[in-house]
Design brief:
The complex is a heterodimer. By secondary structure, chain A is mainly alpha-helical. Helices cover 69% and strands 0% of the residues of chain A. Chain A folds into 2 domains: 4-58; 70-133, no CATH class. Chain A is built from 5 helices and no strands. Chain A is flat. The N and C termini of chain A lie far apart (51 Å). Chain B has one domain (2-464). Helix content of chain B is 75%, strand content 1%. Chain B has 21 helices and 2 strands. In chain B, helix 11 runs antiparallel to helix 12 (295-311). The chains are: A mainly alpha, B mainly alpha. At the A-B interface, helix 1, helix 2, helix 3, helix 4 and helix 5 of A face helix 8, helix 9, helix 17, helix 18 and helix 19 of B.
Chain lengths: 140, 499
């Protein structure tokens, strides 16, 4: 079941279904007077077809296992969302510190001192962006 | 003569102190970021795009163009010294890295720099002559022709960048679907917004670009867990005269090939470098040495790379259709600045167009005088360990997303697309066609609806018009060829099993 080609086809078909079924909620109209749903529906049908061909094709070519590593992507996403939430409700300096400490778990080595240095550097860069480039960063 | 006039007009705009500074900053920053492992031109441009928001229009586009060539040069440096390839520098890894192994790093870097300069100069002449002419041709295009051209572009990009028509087209279509999110211009109905107000204007280009190219690339590098061994060798830059003489013919050949291949849909640096290398291998005086660290193996491809990078601006600026993902991103940058690239841009924003063309040559000079002598210092970027680098890259992704609308919610969208980009990467789906589909999607829909309205719902409009008919015919031929190729391939593979 762990076959890269098969999963790829299934994912493509799923995306096509999401958009295709969504498009049915809008007016389809005729070709001569297209509604908002017509074009997404057409493209989803093509995408579904490609997904179907990929699935069928996966029966004929040698299976390649799908490799993945959830840890790193999860840590990075957590860091990003934490940064956004902290910057919104507290301030961006806290956000930067959280981002650095959270994401660096994904690296090959972990060091608190180094993280503090990186955070300090990035905070300095953020201040520079604010004063030199005029970006509206909610730093504090 | 008119070209000279126009170019002189362009240089007047490119040579102001501010624009010179933006060009120089673009080249240097582009090179530095482009040197970093895993960051090709696409990620570099999307990462640095926010830097240009607060700069005036002409300056910001000049800077972005500078970032693009800088990133390309940076790529070839990392390919030559450490065999870290990107899409635009795969060929540089062959002979360039071989030259490093032979202890001729400096010569290889010098060759790449000088050849890029030659390639860029030739390409600018082509650009200045061809773009206005093509712009006039573009006025003949009707909606149906635009549709066919975009579909043709999808097909070419899919095939060239991913090598698999099916996967590439799938990504392009996903991009088109993402492009439909937001308010429909014709009916005013909000599509696929799931009642989120921030999706009413559609998904941001930067969120998708940074998610798919920035964050997904970082995670990919983290997953592979590779530690780089920085290049510590000595670099002797200046070549001897006979060595220098060997660069020229090969670089000129590469420039011509690159300029030509850069214009075609789906073209650009990626195929140009392969073509130039192949031609050098066939026709060069030193063809036996190519593959074992020959100057020609570096010169031809570097010139083609650079030439194609510049001529790929031609379809974008004259017809208004980007031909590859990098140009799609550039188009996004033009639109953010309120300029619609296309045939009318050359006449309406004459200063911008010629200023940009002239600045390309200025950028070329900067690359030659700044980057080539200073390359040994640039290489110290590699001494920064990746564990220090990647939190910073992610921080810059955040700032980049945030600074477009000063909205922190956009970071969640970027995070979402980082996740999606990672999934695509693991499924071996290249996000480059997605970018193109996303930019062209709304244009494709608009032109499709207009063509259908004009023909009263009759599809024959696509076939009877000479331009769209020809393009659709080419698409059909290509698909037939792909199906036949797959059929014969699988039959060939099946025979030993049957026997």
């Amino acid at each position: 079941m762990n076959n890269l080609n098969l999963i790829r086809g299934l994912v493509l078909m799923a995306i096509a279904l999401v958009f295709g079924i969504g498009a049915l909620n809008y007016t389809i109209g005729h070709f001569s007077r297209a509604g908002p749903g017509l074009f997404p529906l057409m493209v989803s049908c093509l995408l579904f077809l490609i997904g179907l061909i990929t699935v069928v094709r996966s029966r004929f070519v040698a299976a390649v296992p799908l490799s993945y590593n959830m840890k790193n992507i999860a840590l990075i996403l957590l860091g990003l969302c934490g940064f956004a939430l902290l910057s919104e409700h507290l301030n961006m300096i806290a956000g930067i510190v959280f981002l650095v400490f959270c994401t660096s778990f994904a690296g090959t080595s972990y060091s608190v001192v180094r993280n503090l240095k990186i955070s300090a550097g990035l905070i300095a860069v953020a201040f520079m962006f604010r004063t030199l480039l005029g970006l509206q960063l909610p730093l504090f | 003569m008119e070209i000279l006039n126009n170019l002189a007009f362009g240089f007047e705009h490119a040579l102001t102190l501010n624009n010179l500074m933006y060009c120089a900053i673009g080249c240097v920053v582009g090179t530095l970021v482009g040197l970093l492992p895993g960051l090709g031109p696409l990620s570099t441009i999307s990462l640095l795009l926010p830097l240009t928001y607060s700069i005036p229009t002409t300056g910001s586009l000049i800077m972005l163009a500078g970032i693009y060539y800088g990133a390309q040069y940076g790529d070839s440096v990392s390919a030559i010294t450490m065999k870290i390839p990107h899409a635009s520098s795969i060929v540089a890894c062959i002979d360039g890295y071989q030259m490093t192994l032979n202890g001729k790093t400096g010569l290889a870097l010098f060759t790449a720099g000088v050849s890029s300069f030659i390639g860029g100069s030739v390409a600018i002449v082509v650009l200045a002559t061809l773009a206005p002419t093509l712009g006039e041709v573009a006025f003949l295009f009707g909606p149906a022709d635009y549709c066919a051209l975009m579909l043709f572009g999808f097909m070419c990009v899919s095939f060239v960048t991913t090598g698999s028509l099916l996967n590439g087209l799938a990504m392009a279509f996903i991009g088109v679907l993402l492009g439909t999110i937001g308010t429909d211009v014709n009916s005013g109905i909000a599509r696929f917004t799931m009642d989120f107000t921030f999706l009413m204007d559609g998904v941001g280009l930067i969120s998708i670009a940074l998610g798919c190219f920035g964050i997904a690339e970082v995670v990919k590098n983290l997953d592979s867990g590779s530690q780089l061994t920085p290049f510590n060798g000595k670099i002797k830059l200046m070549p001897s005269w006979p060595e220098f003489k060997r660069i020229i013919p090969s670089a000129l050949r590469g420039s011509v090939i690159g300029s030509f291949l850069g214009i075609l849909p789906g073209g650009g640096p990626t195929i140009a470098q392969f073509a130039a290398y192949a031609i050098d291998k066939r026709f060069s005086k030193y063809k036996d040495e190519i593959g074992h660290g020959a100057i020609e193996g570096v010169a031809g491809q570097a010139a083609a790379d650079e030439a194609a990078a510049r001529t790929s601006f031609i379809p974008l600026m004259s017809i208004g259709i980007p031909e590859n993902a990098v140009m799609a991103l550039m188009m996004g940058a033009f639109i953010i600045k309120g300029i619609q690239p296309g045939p009318s841009m050359i006449t309406e924003h004459r200063d911008l167009f010629w200023g940009l063309v002239a600045s390309m040559w200025v950028g070329n000079c900067f690359l030659l005088i700044l980057n080539v002598p200073l390359v040994r210092y640039w290489l110290s970027v590699f001494k920064i360990p990746f564990s220090v680098l990647f939190p910073s890259i992610i921080f810059f992704c955040c700032i980049g997303t945030y600074s477009i609308n000063n909205n922190l919610d956009d970071i969640f969208i970027t995070a979402f697309f980082g996740c999606v980009g990672y999934l695509f990467m693991r499924l071996k789906l290249d996000p480059a066609p997605l970018m193109l589909g996303f930019i062209l999607g709304p244009m494709l829909e608009e032109n499709f609806r207009r063509a259908m309205l004009l023909s009263r719902g009759n599809f024959s409009a696509f076939i009877t018009r000479p331009i769209s008919g020809t393009l659709l015919g080419l698409i059909a031929l290509f698909i037939v060829w792909q199906v036949l190729a797959f059929y014969f391939q699988s039959r060939k593979a099946a025979i030993p099993v049957a026997a």
